[in-house]
Sequence to fold (322 residues):
Amino acid sequence: MTHWTASDIPSQRGRTVVVTGAGGLGFEAALALARAGANVILAGRNASKGAAAIDKIRNDVANENVWFEELDLANLDSIAAFGEHMLSSFDRIDLLINNAGVMAPPDRKMTADHFELQFGTNYLGHFALTAQLLPLLCKGNQPRVVSLSSVAARSGTIDFDDLQSERRYQPMVAYGQSKLACLMFALELQRRSDAAGWGIQSIAAHPGVSRTDLLSNGAGAQSTVGIVRRYLWFLFQPAAQGALPTLFSATSPYAQAGAYYGPNRLSETRGYPSAAKFPPQALDIEVAIRLWEASERLTGVLFHLKEIHNPSVAENRNISLH
Fold:
């Protein structure tokens, strides 16, 4: 795995891929997969940004099988509509990369379904999306689901008394919880895939510290982290480098189901893909099961092939788990 790069990606010809997030890491992952011959669906909430990303990829790569589809991970109705569109348009999905996210808005914001924005978008949105796409993934050719965590997961905790940060909102605490939840989801998804015979490889990855718009879009360009990102840019590795753990997890025959990959240098903040260290709290199976069950209640989706549904989410809105 030493110095693994995008040039090591095996041919992805014939594979159908969904990548969430049209900018930064998502764009770089979609670009690399398109170069490898995959059929790529880039999904995001900003149609103009998505169209620009697709134009850029098509101008760079001789691959017309690259599309943008609208998907707002902060809206369960949008996720359900996207899932229905995929089910009617494709006979299988071979790879799902749960990448999109929001980071550290200074004030507490909510999704359309009244979830705290970071927990709702980064984690619950991808939880519901994966459930909606499960029938297509189970028909995939050696299907994989890659879920993006973060070095922030190291300090994260799952606060079942205040999952939505209603009592106290601290931007980075909420972000750390959301990214720990993503990591625990990847591990629990693998356990459930093994138990149910879905045949899905679930793998987690994190990008280290990379130059994307995540900090400035979330905390704001004039925030402390936004200013650090702008003036100390040299401390952040390029987005294409940060996407390598994701791409390794998504394509390498050496990537292991239920594993976690990140950069290999400077406490996993930069470098080439390597096995990442699990935060001890991510390995708590009882918490993972409780989180999964809470997520099913909050989103109204179930991970059963014959039972996946998204009833009117109105009854699920305003749910708080205490």
Remarks:
- Strands lie at 16-20, 39-44, 66-70, 95-98, 144-148, 201-205, 210-211, 237-238, 260-265, 270-275.
- The chain has ten helices and ten strands.
- The CA atoms of residues 114 and 317 lie 6 Å apart.
- The two ends are 44 Å apart (CA to CA).
